[in-house]
């Protein structure tokens, strides 16, 4: 390891601040990261290697400077806060430090770290998708989305997205193509420059790794003595094949190396399998605009989260259409007295069940993961009720067929047949 900067090194920034290096933290392909004092605060400094800028170093610098001035689109991004001036033909930018308790995706893939629960996996996935939906809807693309970009807390599912120096207006060339193994086929084959559609491919790839702990394109065909550049181009560019392709098993999972996918894939609900098939089918490889949109992902992820209930033995149970089913661990039937019927499907009504805004039709990207309803339980009696968390008044039809208003934050006891009108959508309580 060769440190580029010594402790005590100082440099002025674009916004008039001062950065003083305190300690080396890590090294990556583009540069090194340091703990620094930035105007009296502890921050991180990414300092670039001179060889990392590509063909347009000035444009690369100016793009980061513009990102500094624009500010972060979402709290999930460890966004550039300031940028240094040029020094000895290179520079760096300042960002927040990643807190303790966060780990890169690779740590989960290698099972060095495990999520607290499957619901937490889904929470992490939803935060990733929501962040990129906000970014893309603002007219920007990430352009270099890979496993090293995400730090995830295994207890809470909170996500921090780093290395945002490549973010640029969609269609802008930054000189960065991406990381091998995570680039979309059209980028591998140099048929397109990175954009929001290639971001969607890489995002889907990361999601598969989170859920199944294997790379979705690295099946049996990947297991060869040496991966030559020509073979890599075929595996990731000209002839990619999903490890779980239903019609072609030539790149299927190896019984030992891909045991995670073999064990987990059958447990995923059919709509999760379907969106992965859509993400990695031949049509999605050849036509980037055929890939699932971020809102498509949020629709299936929120449904998946809503259908998971806790068994008395502590195991998580994947329900179907909100109806009772048996726990695979202990054999007991899940206690689901009611279900909540939405326009497209039903979810179990148990303590802490949530309905998100995106489950109720078209919504603004910043409101997509806002809970509009939550099932609560009285401590004394154990009775269940549904709380209006939408911030707006609901119209409701009671079990007797009479109309009434449900104020924001009001709790209504769960009873068979009650209907809540939430704008153009409705929530119906049904007894199991």
Q: Would you kindly provide a written description of the structure presented here, covering whatever features stand out?
A:
The protein is of the alpha+beta class. The protein has 3 domains: 10-95, 2-Layer Sandwich (Phosphorylase Kinase, domain 1), CATH 3.30.200.20; 103-297, Orthogonal Bundle (Transferase(Phosphotransferase), domain 1); 337-431, Tumour Suppressor Smad4 (Sandwich), CATH 2.60.200. The chain has helices spanning 57-70, 105-109, 118-137, 185-188, 196-212, 229-238, 259-264, 270-279, 282-286, 294-306, and strands spanning 10-12, 18-27, 31-38, 41-48, 82-83, 92-95, 103-104, 140-141, 150-152, 159-161, 168-169, 308-310, 316-318, 338-341, 346-349, 354-356, 371-377, 384-388, 394-397, 403-406, 411-413, 419-422, 425-431. A 6-stranded antiparallel beta sheet has the order 1-2-3-4-6-5, with helices on one face. Strands 15-14-23-22-19-20 form a 6-stranded antiparallel beta sheet, with no helix packed on it. A 4-stranded antiparallel beta sheet has the order 16-17-18-21, with no helix packed on it. α3 (118-137) packs antiparallel against α5 (196-212) and α3 (118-137) packs antiparallel against α10.
Secondary structure layout plus pairing:
Blueprint (H helix, E strand, L loop, with lengths): L9 E3 L5 E10 L3 E8 L2 E8 L8 H14 L11 E2 L8 E4 L7 E2 H5 L8 H20 L2 E2 L8 E3 L6 E3 L6 E2 L15 H4 L7 H17 L16 H10 L20 H6 L5 H10 L2 H5 L7 H13 L1 E3 L5 E3 L19 E4 L4 E4 L4 E3 L14 E7 L6 E5 L5 E4 L5 E4 L4 E3 L5 E4 L2 E7 L1
Antiparallel strand pairs: 1-2, 2-3, 3-4, 4-6, 5-6, 7-9, 8-11, 9-10, 12-13, 14-15, 14-23, 16-17, 17-18, 18-21, 19-20, 19-22, 22-23
């Amino acid at each position: 390891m060769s440190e580029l900067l010594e402790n005590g090194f100082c440099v002025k920034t674009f916004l008039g601040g001062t950065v003083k290096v305190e300690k080396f933290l890590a090294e990556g392909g583009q540069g090194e990261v340091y703990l620094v004092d930035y105007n009296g605060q502890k921050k991180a400094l990414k300092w670039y290697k001179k060889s990392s800028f590509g063909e347009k170093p000035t444009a690369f610098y100016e793009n980061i400077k513009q990102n500094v001035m624009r500010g972060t689109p979402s709290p999930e991004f460890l966004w550039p806060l300031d940028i240094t001036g040029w020094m000895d033909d290179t520079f760096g930018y300042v960002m927040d430090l990643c807190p303790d308790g966060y780990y890169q995706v690779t740590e989960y893939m290698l099972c060095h770290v495990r999520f607290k629960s499957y619901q937490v996996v889904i929470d992490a996935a939803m935060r990733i998708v929501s962040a990129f939906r906000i970014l893309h809807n603002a007219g920007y693309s990430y352009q270099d989305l890979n496993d090293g970009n995400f730090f995830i807390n295994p207890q809470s599912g909170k996500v921090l997205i780093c290395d945002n120096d490549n973010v640029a207006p969609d269609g802008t060339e930054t000189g960065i193509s991406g990381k091998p193994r995570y680039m979309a086929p059209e980028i591998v084959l140099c048929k397109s420059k990175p954009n929001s559609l290639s971001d969607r491919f890489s995002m889907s790839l990361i999601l598969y790794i989170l859920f199944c702990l294997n790379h979705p394109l690295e099946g049996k065909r990947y297991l060869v003595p040496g991966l030559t550049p020509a073979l890599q181009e075929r595996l990731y560019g000209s002839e990619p094949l999903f490890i779980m392709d239903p019609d072609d098993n030539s790149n299927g999972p190896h019984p030992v190396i891909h045991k995670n996918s073999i064990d987990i894939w059958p447990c995923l609900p059919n709509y999760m399998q379907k969106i992965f098939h859509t993400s990695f089918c031949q049509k999605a490889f050849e036509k980037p605009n055929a890939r699932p949109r971020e809102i498509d992902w949020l629709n299936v992820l929120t449904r998946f989260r809503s259908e998971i209930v806790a068994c008395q033995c502590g195991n998580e149970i994947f329900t179907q259409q909100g109806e009772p089913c048996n726990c695979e661990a202990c054999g007991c039937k899940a206690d689901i007295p009611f279900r909540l019927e939405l326009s497209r499907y039903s979810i179990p009504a148990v303590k802490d069940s949530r309905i998100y805004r995106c489950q109720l039709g078209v919504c603004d990207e910043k409101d997509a993961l806002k809970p509009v309803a939550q099932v609560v339980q009285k401590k004394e009696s154990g009775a269940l009720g549904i709380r209006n968390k939408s911030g707006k008044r609901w119209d409701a039809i009671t079990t007797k067929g009479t109309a009434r208003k449900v104020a924001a934050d009001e709790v209504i006891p769960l009873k068979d047949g009650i209907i809540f009108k939430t704008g153009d959508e409705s929530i119906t309580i049904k007894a199991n």
